[in-house]
Specification:
101 residues, mainly alpha, two-stranded antiparallel sheet, 42% helix
């Protein structure tokens, strides 16, 4: 099965997420898509939030607000690069969405 790339640049908060090289997730491209998404999150310095290494700060304030924004950036990017049948509600943190079967 061949999937055409969706040419997109997504501006989320103050970060620029260029997703033009990331095709929508389907049954045949998980490995390639995963590598590209990981690199995108690394380059935008949010990989530790997305993979669950950096937990959400418990205390309200700037650190918690920044964590929430970075998590939202990751979720938005993941949702925008998923085919409609892979999008399911319920993930509030990047790690929850990323680790779904």
């Amino acid at each position: 099965m061949t999937t055409a790339a969706v040419s997109t640049t997504t501006v989320v908060s103050s970060r620029l997420f260029d997703t033009c090289g990331i095709v929508q997730l389907d049954a045949d491209n998980y490995r390639t898509r995963s590598l590209r998404m990981r690199q995108l999150f690394k380059s935008n310095r949010i990989i530790d939030i997305i993979n669950g290494t950096t937990p959400r700060p418990a205390t309200a304030g700037d650190d918690q607000t920044n964590w929430d924004q970075a998590n939202n950036d990751g979720l938005t990017t993941m949702y925008l690069t998923m085919s409609p049948h892979h999008v399911r509600p319920g993930g509030r943190r990047g790690v929850e969405l990323q680790n779904r079967p």
